[in-house]
Write a sequence for this structure.
C-alpha cells in the first residue's frame, strides 16, 4: 500500500504555492480514521488548512468526501477510531457539534434538511444568540437581528418570502443551497466546508452562490470545497486540490489538478494508486 | 363491589338533597340516569370505547362531594391571575361546578344573550333549558354521562339568540378547589341559535394538590348558519382526573371549531361526539396534548355525517415524554345518503422516550359511495437529521429539541382563530416544554 508515499506527499504540502494566509494551521487533520456502523470509511486522512486558503477535495463517488465533512462537524452517526483533529489549536473531536459551530466551523450541507414549523427567523435567531452566548455577548435585540437578516440575505439574493418560511420547507434545490450560504453569511465562520454546494444548481444560481462565498472570504477565513466539477472552482479558485479515494487523500496538487480531472476523470489516478 | 355502587347509593340516600340544591329541569332526568348507570356500570378496559382509559378504576376511590352546596371560600382572581394577560375577553369563573357571581365582569353581553349558572337559569328559563337539556347527552349509551346527569347540580348556560353575534370571546375559567379528595360533576349547556355567533375559551385549573375527579358533560346545539368556536385548555395537576363528554349537534351551514388542548393533567379523557345534522355543516375538531411523567391523555372522537354535503376536519397531535400514555380514537360515520361528504382525519404523535406509549385508532364507517374520506396516523420520534442540522448551526441539542417540539404542536395552535389566544398558547407551550409552566414571569406577583 502507499500510505507512506501518501504521508510524504502531505508533508510536502507547505511548499505548494498559493497559501494566502501562510503561518500556522487553522485545521490540522492527522491520520484520521472513521467508520459508520462498524464499516471503516476514512482510512488515514491527513490535511492541513491555513487561514485564507481554499482547498478543493475531489474524488469519485463513495470515496469518503461527505464522510470527512460529517466527521469534522461531529455527526453522531460516525465514529472516529484513530487520529486527531485540531481546529484553531483546540481538539476538535472533543467538542459537541454546536461548539464546533461556535468555534467557527460551518458545513454547507449537500442535502439541507427541511424543518417544517420552525421559521427561518426563529432558527437563525437561536443560532446567532447561542453563538453570541458562547462568546460572552448579550443576545441581539430584535430590530438589530432583523436588520442583520436583511443585510445578509442580499449576499445571496435570498427572497424575503423564503426568509419568512419554515427552514428549507418547499424551497427548490437552488434555494436550499442559497439558504446555506445565507446562513454562512449570518454566522461568519472561520472555516466553511461546502459539500457539493454546486450540485443541483443552474448556471445563474451557481454564480450567485459562488459570488456569495467569495464576498464572505477574508484573509482569516478558509474554505474546503467538496465537488465533482470544475465549474464551481472556476469561481472559488482553490489554492490546493486533493483527490480522495478509498478513504485516503491519494493526490494533492495545485488548481491545475482539478482541470486535469475535468478532462481525464479519475481513472488515471485510480490506476496510479493501484500500481 | 363495583365502583358504581357507591355513587348509586349516594344518589338513593341524598336524592332529595341533590334535588333541593338544583333545578327541577335537571332533576327530572336523574332517576332514569340512575337506572341506566345501575344497568351499565362503569366501563372497564374491556369496553371498546374505553379500551385505553379504565373508568371503573378511576371511580373506585372515595371522593368527597359538595351536595349540600356549602360555600368553599376562594377568590378565583387570585388563582388565575397569572394566566390572563389582558386577552380582552369577557371573563367568568366556575368554581368546581358553581358559577362565581361575586365579581361579574362589567362588560355587557349583547341583548338577549344569557350567560350564567345553569341551575339559576334553569329556574328562570325552564322552558328554554328543558328544550335542550339532556337531549344530546344520552344517558343510555355512556356511563359517565349517566353519572353526571344523576349527580350534576349546576354548571353553566350560554344562550345566544337567533342572529346575535357575540363579538368579544367569552372566557370561562373552571377552578377545582377543595380540601379533601374531591369529585366535581359539572354540566354545561350551550345554545347557539340560527345565524348566531360566539367564541368561547374554557380554561381548567386545579388550585389544590389533592386528588380531583371531575366529570363534565357539555351539550352544544348549533343552529342553521350559526358559528361557534370552543377552545378548551387544561392546565391542572398530576392528581386531577378529567372525564369530559362533549356533544355537538349542528344544523345546516353551521361552522364549528373545537380545539382541546391538554397542557397538564393527570388523567384526561375527552369524548367528543359531533352530529352533522344539516347540509353544509362544517366542523374542525382539533386537539393536542403534551404529557410527561405518568400522565394519560385519551381523546375519543366520533363524527356522524348524517346528511349530505358536510365537511369535517380532524387534527390531533401528541407529544409524550417519560412514561406518559396517549390514546386517540377517530370514528367517522358516513350514513347512507350522506353524499359529497368530505372528511379528513390526521393524528400525529411524538414519543420522546422508549417508555412513552401512544395508541391510535382511526375508524371509518362509510355507507355512501360519493364521498372523500381520508385518515392518517403516525407515531415517531424527533427528526435526527433536523436536530443535527440545527446543532451544526450552533443550536444546542436541548434547544433544537425545543424548537422541533414546538414546531410539531404549532400546527394545531395555528389553527386557532383567536389571534391573542394563538400567541398566548405558543408562549404557554414553550413554557410547558421547558418545564416552567408553574412559573409565570408575566405578572407582578411572580416577578
Amino acid at each position: 500500500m502507499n500510505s507512506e508515499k501518501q504521508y510524504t506527499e502531505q508533508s510536502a504540502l507547505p511548499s505548494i504555492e498559493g497559501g494566502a494566509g501562510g503561518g500556522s494551521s487553522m485545521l490540522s487533520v492527522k491520520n484520521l480514521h472513521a467508520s459508520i456502523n462498524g464499516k471503516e470509511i476514512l482510512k488515514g486522512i491527513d490535511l492541513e488548512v491555513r487561514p485564507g486558503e481554499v482547498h478543493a477535495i475531489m474524488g469519485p463517488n463513495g470515496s469518503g468526501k461527505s464522510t470527512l465533512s460529517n466527521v469534522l462537524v461531529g455527526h453522531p452517526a460516525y465514529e472516529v477510531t484513530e487520529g486527531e483533529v485540531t481546529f484553531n489549536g483546540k481538539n476538535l473531536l472533543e467538542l459537541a457539534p454546536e461548539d464546533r459551530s461556535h468555534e467557527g466551523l460551518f458545513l454547507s450541507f449537500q442535502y439541507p434538511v427541511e424543518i417544517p414549523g420552525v421559521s427561518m427567523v426563529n432558527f437563525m435567531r437561536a443560532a446567532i444568540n447561542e453563538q453570541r452566548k458562547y462568546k460572552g455577548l448579550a443576545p441581539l435585540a430584535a430590530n438589530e437581528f432583523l436588520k442583520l437578516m436583511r443585510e445578509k440575505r442580499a449576499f445571496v439574493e435570498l427572497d424575503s418570502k423564503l426568509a419568512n418560511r419554515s427552514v428549507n420547507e418547499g424551497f427548490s434545490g437552488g434555494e436550499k443551497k442559497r439558504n446555506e450560504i445565507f446562513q454562512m453569511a449570518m454566522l461568519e465562520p472561520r472555516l466553511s466546508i461546502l459539500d457539493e454546494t454546486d450540485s443541483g444548481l443552474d448556471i445563474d444560481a451557481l454564480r450567485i452562490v459562488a459570488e456569495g462565498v467569495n464576498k464572505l472570504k477574508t484573509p482569516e477565513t478558509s474554505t474546503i470545497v467538496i465537488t465533482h466539477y470544475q465549474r464551481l472552482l472556476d469561481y472559488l479558485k482553490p489554492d490546493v486540490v486533493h483527490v480522495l479515494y478509498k478513504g485516503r487523500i491519494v493526490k494533492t496538487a495545485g488548481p491545475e489538478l482539478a482541470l486535469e480531472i475535468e478532462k481525464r476523470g479519475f481513472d488515471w489516478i485510480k490506476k496510479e494508486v493501484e500500481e | 363491589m363495583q365502583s358504581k355502587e357507591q355513587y348509586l347509593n349516594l344518589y338513593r340516600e341524598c336524592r332529595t338533597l341533590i334535588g333541593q340544591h338544583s333545578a327541577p329541569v335537571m332533576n327530572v332526568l336523574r332517576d332514569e340516569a340512575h337506572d341506566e348507570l345501575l344497568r351499565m356500570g362503569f366501563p372497564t378496559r374491556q369496553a371498546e370505547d374505553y379500551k385505553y382509559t379504565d373508568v371503573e378504576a378511576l371511580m373506585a376511590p372515595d371522593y368527597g362531594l359538595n351536595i349540600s352546596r356549602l360555600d368553599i371560600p376562594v377568590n378565583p382572581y387570585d388563582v388565575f391571575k397569572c394566566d390572563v394577560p389582558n386577552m380582552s375577553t369577557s371573563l367568568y369563573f366556575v368554581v368546581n361546578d358553581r358559577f362565581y357571581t361575586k365579581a361579574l365582569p362589567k362588560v355587557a353581553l349583547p341583548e338577549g344573550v344569557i350567560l350564567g349558572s345553569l341551575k339559576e337559569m334553569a329556574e328562570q328559563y325552564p322552558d328554554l333549558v328543558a328544550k335542550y337539556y339532556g337531549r344530546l347527552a344520552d344517558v343510555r349509551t355512556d356511563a359517565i354521562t349517566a353519572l353526571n346527569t344523576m349527580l350534576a347540580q349546576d354548571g353553566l348556560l350560554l344562550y345566544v339568540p337567533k342572529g346575535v353575534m357575540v363579538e368579544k370571546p367569552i372566557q370561562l375559567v373552571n377552578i377545582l378547589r377543595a380540601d379533601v379528595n374531591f369529585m366535581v360533576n359539572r354540566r354545561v349547556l350551550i345554545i347557539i341559535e340560527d345565524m348566531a355567533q360566539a367564541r368561547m375559551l374554557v380554561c381548567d385549573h386545579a388550585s389544590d394538590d389533592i386528588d380531583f375527579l371531575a366529570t363534565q358533560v357539555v351539550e352544544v346545539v348549533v343552529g342553521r348558519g350559526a358559528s361557534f368556536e370552543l377552545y378548551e385548555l387544561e392546565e391542572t395537576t398530576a392528581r386531577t382526573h378529567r372525564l369530559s363528554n362533549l356533544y355537538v349537534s349542528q344544523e345546516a351551514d353551521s361552522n364549528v371549531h373545537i380545539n382541546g388542548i391538554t397542557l397538564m393533567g393527570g388523567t384526561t379523557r375527552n369524548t367528543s361526539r359531533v352530529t352533522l345534522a344539516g347540509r353544509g355543516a362544517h366542523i374542525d375538531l382539533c386537539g393536542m396534548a403534551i404529557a410527561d411523567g405518568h400522565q394519560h391523555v385519551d381523546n375519543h372522537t366520533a363524527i356522524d355525517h348524517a346528511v349530505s354535503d358536510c365537511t369535517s376536519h380532524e387534527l390531533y397531535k401528541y407529544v409524550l415524554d417519560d412514561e406518559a400514555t396517549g390514546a386517540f380514537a377517530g370514528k367517522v360515520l358516513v350514513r347512507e345518503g350522506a353524499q359529497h361528504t368530505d372528511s379528513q382525519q390526521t393524528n400525529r404523535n411524538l414519543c420522546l422516550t422508549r417508555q412513552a406509549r401512544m395508541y391510535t385508532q382511526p375508524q371509518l364507517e362509510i355507507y355512501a359511495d360519493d364521498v372523500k374520506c381520508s385518515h392518517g396516523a403516525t407515531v415517531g420520534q424527533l427528526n435526527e437529521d433536523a436536530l443535527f442540522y440545527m446543532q451544526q448551526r450552533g443550536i444546542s441539542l436541548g434547544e433544537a429539541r425545543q424548537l422541533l417540539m414546538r414546531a410539531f404542536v404549532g400546527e394545531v395552535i395555528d389553527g386557532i382563530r383567536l389571534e391573542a389566544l394563538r400567541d398566548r398558547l405558543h408562549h404557554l407551550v414553550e413554557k410547558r416544554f421547558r418545564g416552567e409552566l408553574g412559573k409565570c414571569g408575566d405578572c407582578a406577583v411572580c416577578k
